[in-house]
Amino acid sequence: MKLSYLWRGLPGHPIHPPLTDVTIGAYSFATIAAFCDVTGISNSTAAHGWWLALLVGLASTVLTATTGLADWLTLTWGSEIWKTATWHALVNVTAGVIFGLTALFGHDDWHAGNVSTGEFILTLVGFGTLLVGGWLGGAITYVHGMRVLQLTEEPTERAVSPVPKPEKEAAEGA
Question: What is the pLDDT of residue 44?
C-alpha cells in the first residue's frame, strides 16, 4: 500500500470524484431549497435547509478541492489535460467562493427564515458556475481519460476490490 492512496485513492478508485458528488449534491439541494423558499412552495423550512446545505457544501468543498489538488499535482505542467484541469479547478474554486459569499451574506436571512432575492441570485450564479466546473471535470475523465484504467475484462470481484491489485497498479502506472 502506498501512502498516496490515502489522499488520491486506489488505482481505478480515485477519491476526488466521489467527493464531488457530495459537494454537487449539497449545492444542488441548496439551489432547490432556495427556489422553494422564493417561490413560496415552502417557507422558513426551505430557507433553513438552504443555509445548512450551503454549509455542508462548503465543508465538502475543502475535501474535494484538496483531493483534486493532489491529482492536479501529478499532471505534466502545460499539457492539455493540465490546462483542462486548471480551468476545472479555477471555475470550481470560483463557485465555492460564490457559495461562501452567499452563506455569509445570507446568514441574517437564514435567521429570519427567508432567502432574499440577492442570495437567491448568488445561489443561482454559484450553481451555474458549478455546472461549468462539472462539465470541465467530465472532460478530464471522459475525454482525457485521467485515472481511467480500461480493464474492460477485469473480473468483477477484482474490479470492485478495495485492495489494490497488481493489474490495476500496472494499468495506472502506479
Answer: 87
- The values of phi and psi at residue 10, to 5°, are -85, 160
In angstroms, the Cα distances linking 85 to 33, 107, 150, 164 are: 30, 33, 21, 25
Model pTM?
0.91
Type of residue numbered 108: D
Q: Which three cell numbers stand for residue 71?
A: 491529482
Cα–Cα distance for residue pair 122/31, rounded to 1 Å: 10
Cell triple for 117: 432575492
Question: What pLDDT does 174 receive?
Answer: 54
Please provide the size of the chain in residues: 174
Under 8 Å between Cβ of 101 and 122: yes
Q: What letter does residue 76 receive in the DSSP assignment? A: P
SS3 state of residue 115: coil
Alpha helices (runs of H) in 113-165, residue ranges in sequence order = 117-142, 156-159
Residue indicated by cell numbers 459569499: 101
Cα gap 173→139, rounded to integer Å: 21
Specify burial of residue 95 (Cβ count, 10 A radius: 0-12, 13-18, 19+).
buried
CB contact at 8 A, 50 and 34: yes
Looking at the predicted structure, is the pLDDT value of residue 1 above 80? no
Q: Are 27 and 57 in contact, with CB atoms under 8 Å apart?
A: yes
